[in-house]
Write a structure and sequence with these properties.
It contains 20 helices and no strands. By secondary structure, it is mainly alpha-helical. Helix 3 packs across helix 7, helix 8 packs antiparallel against helix 10 and helix 12 runs antiparallel to helix 13. The chain is globular and about 60 Å long. It starts with a helix and ends with a helix. The N terminus is likely disordered.
C-alpha cells in the first residue's frame, strides 16, 4: 500500500487532465471503447495504474447506476487527487461531447444523418478492434488459477452466447452487476482456504463513512421532484427528469435512451421521433460519453423559449444526467478504498476482476456481430434473423482483423487512429 501511495503522489494533475482531454477527443464507440482507451493511455502509456486496478474501478462503476465510463475515469481522478481532481476530471471528460451535442441541438435541421453516418463509417470497425485487443490483453492477465479462467469464461458465455436463447433474462441492465457480484461470491467461498489472499492487512485504513454526498443526493432528488411538480416550469421538469434517469439507469446509454423516448417524445411530445433518432446517430458519431444525449435532448426541450433558454437546457440536461452518478462515486469510492482490504472483499476481488474481463470480451463480441453480419431486426443475434442474401460483411470482418493486428504491433496513439478512420470515411464517401 505504501508503494501505491507513493506512486499516486508522483502524478502531476495537469498532465493527468491533459491525458483525460486527449482520451475525451478520441473516445468514440461507447463505454467499452472508452475502457480500451483508458487501458491504452492510462495503463500502458502512462502507468498511472495497473490493469487490475483499472478493472477494479470499472467493476465498481458497473455496480452503480449512472454512466460507467464516466464514473470509471472520475474514480481515477478521485484516486489520484481526491474530490477536486475528480471534479476537474469529470469536467474535462464531458467537455468535448458537451460542446458537440449542444451545437448539434441548434444545427440538427441542417445535418444529414446519412452523410454523417457515412463519414464515420469506419469508426465502428475501429472500435471493435480496440475492444478486442483490450479484452485480449486483460484476458491474458487472468492466467493464475483455474477459478479465474472459469469465471471469465462464464461471464462471456452468459452475456454473449446465451443472449438469444435467454434474452428475457440476459438482456437486462441488471445482468452486469449480477454477474460481477456473482463472481465475487464464488471467489469468496473458493478463496476461504487461501491464506495468501485472505490474510488481513494490519494497517488497513479506518473505515470512515462520509454521509454528506448521499444526503445531497437524496435532497436534490426530493427537491427537484417537488419544485418540478409545483412550478410546472419546463426547465425544472427537465432537470427532474434527467436527474431521475441518472439515478435509475443501470447498463448505460442503451437503457437511458428508451426512458428519454418515453418521457420527451411519447409523453410530453417536446421532441419529435426523427429529431431524437438524429441525435442518437450524432451522439454515436462524436467522442465522449453517450450520456451527453441528455445535452442534445435538453437543448431541444427548451428551444421554444429562445436561444438562451436552449443553451440553458443543454447545461441543465447535462448536469441532471451526470450529477447522480458523480455523487455516487464521491460517496462510494472513499469507502471502497478503505474496505477493499478486508477479508470478505479481498476474497471476492479476484472473482469480480475475472468476471469483468469476461464482460469486456463479451462487449467486443456483441459489437462485432452487427458490424460483421446483416440482420433483419437489429440487436437480435440469432441465425434465423440473418438476412437471406449477402448477410456476411467480409470487408468489415477483414478490416477488424487487420486493425486488430496493427493495434497489437504498432504503438500509434488512439487519436491518430480515429482521425485516420474519419479521413477514410470522407475519402471513400459514396
Amino acid at each position: 500500500m505504501a508503494s501505491e501511495g507513493a506512486k499516486v503522489k508522483k502524478i502531476k494533475r495537469f498532465m493527468f487532465l491533459k491525458d483525460v482531454l486527449v482520451i475525451a477527443f478520441s473516445a468514440f464507440g461507447g463505454p467499452n471503447m472508452h475502457l480500451a482507451l483508458f487501458q491504452k493511455r492510462m495503463v500502458e502509456k502512462r502507468s498511472y495504474l495497473s490493469e487490475s486496478e483499472l478493472l477494479e474501478l470499472y467493476s465498481l462503476a458497473q455496480m452503480l447506476p449512472g454512466p460507467s465510463s464516466t464514473q470509471t475515469i472520475t474514480s481515477m481522478g478521485y484516486k489520484f487527487g481526491g474530490p477536486t481532481l475528480a471534479f476537474l476530471t469529470l469536467m474535462v471528460w464531458i467537455l468535448p461531447a458537451f460542446i458537440f451535442m449542444s451545437t448539434f441541438s441548434f444545427l440538427f435541421e441542417f445535418l444529414d444523418p446519412a452523410t454523417t453516418n457515412q463519414v464515420f463509417r469506419f469508426i465502428q470497425p475501429l472500435a471493435v478492434a480496440f475492444i478486442f485487443t483490450a479484452g485480449l490483453k486483460m484476458a491474458l492477465k487472468v492466467n493464475r488459477g483455474r477459478m479465474k479462467l472459469i469465471l471469465m469464461a462464464l461471464a462471456f458465455i452468459i452475456v454473449a452466447l446465451l443472449r438469444h436463447p435467454l434474452e428475457k433474462y440476459v438482456k437486462t441492465p441488471w445482468m452486469f452487476p449480477v454477474i460481477l457480484i456473482g463472481g465475487g461470491v464464488i471467489s469468496y467461498f473458493i478463496n476461504k482456504g487461501d491464506e495468501d489472499i485472505i490474510q488481513e492487512i494490519d494497517n488497513r485504513p479506518k473505515l470512515v463513512i462520509k454521509w454528506l454526498y448521499p444526503i445531497i443526493f437524496a435532497a436534490i432528488f426530493i427537491f427537484a421532484a417537488v419544485v418540478g411538480k409545483l412550478s410546472g416550469h419546463r426547465i425544472f421538469v427537465l432537470f427532474e427528469n434527467m436527474y431521475r434517469f441518472g439515478t435509475l439507469v443501470f447498463g448505460g446509454g442503451n437503457v437511458l435512451i428508451p426512458m428519454m423516448v418515453e418521457q420527451f417524445v411519447m409523453f410530453n411530445e417536446w421532441i419529435r421521433m426523427d429529431e431524437f433518432l438524429t441525435g442518437i446517430g450524432l451522439n454515436q458519431a462524436v467522442p465522449g460519453p453517450i450520456f451527453t444525449i441528455g445535452t442534445y435532448s435538453g437543448g431541444l426541450v427548451m428551444r421554444e423559449y429562445g436561444s438562451m433558454w436552449q443553451l440553458m437546457g443543454c447545461l441543465v440536461g447535462s448536469i441532471g444526467i451526470f450529477l447522480p452518478g458523480t455523487l455516487m462515486i464521491f460517496f462510494v469510492y472513499p469507502i471502497w478504498d478503505s474496505i477493499k482490504n478486508y477479508k470478505i472483499i479481498r476474497r471476492s476481488l479476484d472473482g469480480v476482476i475475472a468476471a469483468s474481463s469476461g464482460l469486456v470480451l463479451a462487449a467486443g463480441y456483441l459489437l462485432f456481430l452487427p458490424v460483421a453480419f446483416n440482420w433483419k431486426v437489429e440487436n437480435s443475434f440469432h441465425y434465423t434473423n440473418l438476412q437471406e442474401h449477402d448477410f456476411v460483411n467480409y470487408f468489415d470482418i477483414g478490416l477488424i482483423v487487420v486493425l486488430s493486428i496493427l493495434l497489437r504491433r504498432f504503438k500509434i496513439p488512439a487519436p491518430v487512429w480515429v482521425v485516420l478512420a474519419i479521413l477514410a470515411g470522407i475519402i471513400f464517401k459514396t
